[in-house]
Amino acid sequence: MQITLLRNLVQEMAGEGSGQIVDILFDKRDINEFLIAKKMNLTINQVRNILYKLSAEGLVSFTRKKDKRKGWYIYFWTLNTEKCLMKLEVELTKKLEELKQAQKQREYGRYYTCKNCNIEVTEEKALEDDFSCSECAEVYTLVDNTNNLKELKGKITKRENELNEIKQELESVRVKTKKVTDAAQKKLAAKKSKGKKAKGKSSKAKKVTKPKKTKQKK
Ligand SMILES: [Zn+2]
């Protein structure tokens, strides 16, 4: 699992320092929010703030239980791995497209630089400036794109690998989820047919007792 990517995603959604929550919730279910707060060294309200933001994006889900002694609700949180991976897939695809766009521009476009000001301009801007810097009047020099392209290529390969891994993980999570849902549905179906039988019995029993009571009252 791409834990680092997940951490970054959470941080993007819920703010700096929230990524640690991934390590606490990952591969577990129904984690008590007080435990999360303790582990993250945050107040319960700070933790809830993070979790509500993630919940709004569908990245976490909760169940709640009433604390009988204190009378308030305690929330138990679970990371929605499939949703997280889907979100990562979308984000990575977008980033990859941006990188490929930038690569195209570097491959086919010309860029100029002013060595004094350490700035870079497009060919269009250089033409506009008559090929001398608008700040210091130094003549622009043509940028060698070799290093830029090399760097972009590396970034693209990295993102492509990440995206492939995410896709594979998503696939295996979906297979797992399907198995769990199928099993749960079978269980539910079995329970329902049992419940029907039990209900039938109890309603028969009621019918027998009711007429007796009415007779007594009369
Ligand atoms: Zn300049």
Write the topology of this structure.
Blueprint: H1 3-14, H2 20-25, E1 31-32, H3 33-40, H4 44-56, E2 60-66, E3 73-79, H5 81-108, E4 111-114, E5 119-122, H6 123-128, E6 141-142, H7 146-217
Antiparallel strand pairs: 1-3, 2-3, 4-5, 4-6
Helix pairs in contact: 3-4, 5-7
The chain binds zinc ion.
Care to describe what's here?
This protein is 67% helix and 12% strand. The chain starts with a helix and ends with a helix. The protein is built from seven helices and six strands; from the N terminus they run ααβααββαββαβα. The longest helix has 72 residues, at 146-217. β4 and β5 (119-122) form a beta hairpin. It is elongated. 13% of the residues are buried. Bound molecules: zinc ion. The site of zinc ion has 7 residues, from loops.
What labels describe this entry?
218 residues, mainly alpha, Arc Repressor Mutant, subunit A, 7 helices, binds zinc ion
The averaged pLDDT comes out at 90
Summed up, the helix count is 7
The low-pLDDT segments are 203-210
Taken as a percent bin, the fraction of beta residues is 5-15%
Rg on CA atoms, Å: 30 Å
Bound chemical compounds: zinc ion
Shape category = elongated
The domain count comes to 2
Distance between the termini: 73 Å
Count of distinct strands: 6
Helix content: 55-70%
Q: What profile does the largest beta sheet have?
A: 3 strands, antiparallel
Give a quick rundown of the structure:
This protein has 218 residues and is mainly alpha-helical.
